[in-house]
């Protein structure tokens, strides 16, 4: 197994300490790791929301020492994942290059630390997604609502993800991105194409229409995700 394959196989399971010491960067050149902690502003919320709350009995609450959440953001390539992460963090989104590995950003949001793993969506690297499933609290699936020809591919990839046992306890947020583009499907239409109504009844999920370009809908979705995760894994002080 070469260095690049070795890094891919273990990067998702390593803690932030190793990554911050440069292990990932030196071992896997395509893995760009960002570690920042900052507060960010808010944008108007989008009006289109569909959600489902499964049985909370499936997710026993536990007391964690530190209020951190691990969020895995995935989706097909060019769906807008990196732009979304930068936008919610108040960063420049004028120049975005495809994510060939993964980016990690740690953000202070409300009273929690969100460790967001933004993983590339190119077809050639989707098989590596499974290396990032461990200890995931929230799964964000980003959809390019204007890319109608690839929606079947999008649906199949999501179906495969939701079969993963290591993601069975994760809250699911589907972001129907690029709502600012003319001809983009509405969240209700995306939900139908993805067949979200057939999602395991024990899973909490929500679909929100958004635009990474304008910022609309992003915080509406993030607010729901954070609160849903918190209600499952943190005891009330």
Question: Please, could you describe this protein's structure?
Answer:
With 237 residues, the chain is α/β, with parallel strands linked by helices. Helix content is 26%, strand content 20%. The chain is globular and about 45 Å long. The model is unreliable at 3-47 and 55-61 (pLDDT under 50).
Please render the helix and strand layout as text.
Blueprint: H1 3-11, H2 16-20, H3 23-27, E1 49-52, E2 68-75, H4 81-88, E3 102-109, E4 112-119, E5 138-144, H5 151-162, E6 171-177, H6 187-193, E7 205-209, H7 218-233
Parallel strand pairs: 2-4, 2-5, 5-6, 6-7
Antiparallel strand pairs: 1-7, 3-4
The top level CATH class name of the largest domain: Alpha Beta
SSE pattern, N- to C-terminal: HHHEEHEEEHEHEH
From the spread of the alpha carbons, the general shape counts as globular
Contiguous helical run count: 7
Family: Belongs to the small GTPase superfamily. Arf family.
Keywords: GTP-binding, Lipoprotein, Magnesium, Metal-binding, Myristate, Nucleotide-binding
Organism: Vanilla planifolia (Vanilla)
InterPro entries: Arl2, ARL2/3, P-loop_NTPase, Small_GTP-bd, Small_GTPase_ARF/SAR
